[in-house]
Amino acid sequence: MKLGIDLGGSKIRLAVVHDGIIESKVIDYPGNPTSSKDIKDRLFDAVKSLEKEHFELISVSMAGGLQEGFRNIVKDALKHYSQNIFIFPDIKVVHFSFFEEGDGVVVISGTGSSIYGKKGKAELFYGGLGFAISDVGSGFDIGRNYLSKGLSQMQLGNHKKEAKNIIKYFSQSNVNAIIETIYEGNVVKNIADFSVFVLKNDPLNGIVRSSSSKLAKETLKVIENLDFETVNVGLAGGVFENSKVFSEVFLGVLSKRVKVNVVKRKTSNEIASILMAEKGIKNV
């Protein structure tokens, strides 16, 4: 029996594989270890909820998987369930889920954002440094900029569409009360969750377009660094999934500089991480 875990920005996805049968479960936790101090307890409880005592191996796709401190927290949380624990950066797992061991570039735009490209033996991780430093073109980025604009309008008594949408989402017109709600619990998740509302209710807003364009320009740096003339690209994360406009702007910017082939994902992160462990791909 094997367990694959996708430890994302707002959810923990688990897949138990036994005799070719996959049992999946999604738990809505603020799971990202860059924003949750109690990740160890949350992860332990998530696995405990599966009611399985032991696994042949556990493989984790993890936001923050390049940082030793976060990896150690995860290993400590899981050591009760298996002696064989593999931890991979989520962006590398996403790449495998699209291309297996082939060449290409993947871009994640969810709660946060990151880019990973592989060409032959060359590879490049880019972005993914967390909301305080980067995360351009992410749900957090869109939500933060939209809130900044709309709340400023409200303070000035100038209720344009951004302010009106904020009032609609929070069912509240008091700026201080809205701020209090945003800062309750996981502020990064709260802001990223708001971006889903923006993408559905104000999809053509310049903030959405600008965020997409900036992420595309960052992606071009990876493409050019790896010297791609034609590039296979995989798009992952809730922002791409929830916004046709965001995807179109992103691909439009890329296509002006390089020939792009958009590739569909072959499997989930949970299963991809297990396959990577089975193939003996070096984990971090």
Question: Would you write up a description of this structure?
Answer:
- This is ATPase BadF/BadG/BcrA/BcrD type domain-containing protein.
- One of its GO terms (molecular function) is N-acetylglucosamine kinase activity.
- Residues 3-260 form the ATPase BadF/BadG/BcrA/BcrD type domain.
- The chain folds into two domains: 2-94 and 268-279, 2-Layer Sandwich (Nucleotidyltransferase, domain 5), CATH 3.30.420; 101-265, Nucleotidyltransferase, domain 5 (2-Layer Sandwich).
- The chain contains eleven helices and ten strands.
- It has helices at 39-48, 68-78, 90-99, 139-155, 161-170, 175-182, 187-201, 206-225, 238-242, 244-255, 269-278, and strands at residues 2-7, 12-18, 21-27, 57-62, 85-89, 104-109, 113-119, 122-127, 230-236, 259-262.
- A five-stranded mixed β-sheet has the order 3-2-1-4-5, sandwiched between helices.
- The chain is globular, with a radius of gyration of 20 Å.
